[in-house]
Amino acid sequence: MKSKVIWLCAILLVATVVAFSQHSPLQPGQPQQPGQPQPPQQPPDPIAGNLFPPELVMQHRHALGLTDEQKAAIKDEAIKASTRFNELQWQMQDEMETMAGLTKGDNVDEQKVLAELDKILAIEREVKRTQLTLSIRIKNRLTSEQRARLQEIQRN
pLDDT of 7-26, one tens digit each? Predict the structure, then answer.
């Protein structure tokens, strides 16, 4: 039960960080108040349009005309990434439990907590690196025609 609570806290922490990084002070449909400065617009993700998630590729595999070799290679890469994600999830859970223990009590050792935060951020970095590696390897398996078709699918 304790580990489920810690894992839930970890997920909520990550979700909060993501939400704050993408948060706009105005909600869609909320009118701009007179005299209130316009919030800065988030620039479009310059990488998202160039890479393709495995789900998108496999969902449209027939329309793309993937060969058996391409499907097998993409499947193998996705399995490798999934295995790595599971390893990182276990590491993250362990580090979050350590973080929870370090923050208990009346006095918190700031240096130890910050060192633990660095470990957690390193795991998050590895998750993102694994995701990017998977996307690059998938893109490199596709022909230029298949990449163009996927970009068209993404636009629509």
Answer: 444 444 444 433 333 333 44
